[in-house]
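Lecture notes, continued. The same structure-token format from the folding unit now serves as the input rather than the output. Read the line below as a description of shape only.
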């Protein structure tokens, strides 16, 4: 075997970052808006005639998971979006961070959407028109979900017949998911790839859990819902394990269920919430010890939710058989040999 091939085979695979960004200023001015329009598969995008003489500015941040669920954050000048023309089979879960949008749908019903509107669910294939109410830019984030995934979670149509959108209840999991989407928009592309993907999975799992609780028949498949809560809990822990005060009560609130139910779901799988949290923290710590070779162990412990270095050291040794410092040295030696 070629020596170079042998060396390359020992190199760790570089994981692509799940987030990608687009700043339309990188496109020649005359082509900017036309190029921007090509980025939207579910809607037709246009501008008001009064805006055509003005330069268009827009930024987009995107990520996707293995279920076909995609996250997008938009920060752009005013534009007009026409829904119901493309047969996309996409349902969007939207939150507005900045700006005021007018959304006309159904029997000429008009909804005014802004940062106080909470989470909203849109059927992209039902006729509607949205527009920004002023010349200021707008900022919003949304999850695009395949219709089949939403129908399976909800057991029926996502939006009542004759309408194209609905407001979601502003309690339980909704404000947690809304805050999570806001955080993804602000910090997603700056996280390491593994953490970014964990944040994306957490958003997907929370969205599906939230939608399953909106089942129009008033009931849900108990086993499927428990599975969704279990998965959402693990993702929520991965995304928030740096918080030293991450308790079972806080985790239960984060995924929209009671603490008793959370305990029951984990017990059915011969696990505990505490064990899941501890293992996630120590797993993250082991990764950081290996990749951040100059970072003080105390800082890594703190970043993984430990405020007591001694407690961290004992927990780490119980999990991996060696103290954190010895683990770091052993992993560095293994890399040099490879």
């Amino acid at each position: 075997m070629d020596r170079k091939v042998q060396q390359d085979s020992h190199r760790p695979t570089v994981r692509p970052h799940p987030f990608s960004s687009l700043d339309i200023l990188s496109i020649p001015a005359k082509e900017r808006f036309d190029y921007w329009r090509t980025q939207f598969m579910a809607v037709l995008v246009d501008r008001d005639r009064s805006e055509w003489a003005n330069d268009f500015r827009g930024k987009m941040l995107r990520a996707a998971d293995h279920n076909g669920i995609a996250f997008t954050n938009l920060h752009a000048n005013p534009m007009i979006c026409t829904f119901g023309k493309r047969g996309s089979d996409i349902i969007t879960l939207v939150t507005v961070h900045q700006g005021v949008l007018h959304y006309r749908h159904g029997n000429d019903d008009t909804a005014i959407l802004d940062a106080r509107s909470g989470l909203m669910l849109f059927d992209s294939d039902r006729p509607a028109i949205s527009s920004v109410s002023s010349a200021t830019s707008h900022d919003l984030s949304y999850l695009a979900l395949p219709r089949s995934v939403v129908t399976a979670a909800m057991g029926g149509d996502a939006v009542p017949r004759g309408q194209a959108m609905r407001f979601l209840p502003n309690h339980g999991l909704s404000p947690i998911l809304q805050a999570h989407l806001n955080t993804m928009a602000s910090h997603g592309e700056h996280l390491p790839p593994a953490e970014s993907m964990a944040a994306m999975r957490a958003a997907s799992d929370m969205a599906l859990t939230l939608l399953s609780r909106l089942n129009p028949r008033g009931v849900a498949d108990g086993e499927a819902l428990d599975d969704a809560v279990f998965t959402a809990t693990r993702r929520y822990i991965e995304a928030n394990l740096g918080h030293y005060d991450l308790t079972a009560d806080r985790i239960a609130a984060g995924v929209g269920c009671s603490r008793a139910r959370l305990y029951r779901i984990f017990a059915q799988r011969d696990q505990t919430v505490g064990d899941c949290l501890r293992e996630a923290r120590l797993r993250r710590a082991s990764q950081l010890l290996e990749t951040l070779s100059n970072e003080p162990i105390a800082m890594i412990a703190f970043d993984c939710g430990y405020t007591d270095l001694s407690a961290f050291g004992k927990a780490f040794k119980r999990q991996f058989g060696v103290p954190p410092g010895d683990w770091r040295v052993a992993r560095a030696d293994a890399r040099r040999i490879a």
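Point for the exam: The radius of gyration is 23 Å.
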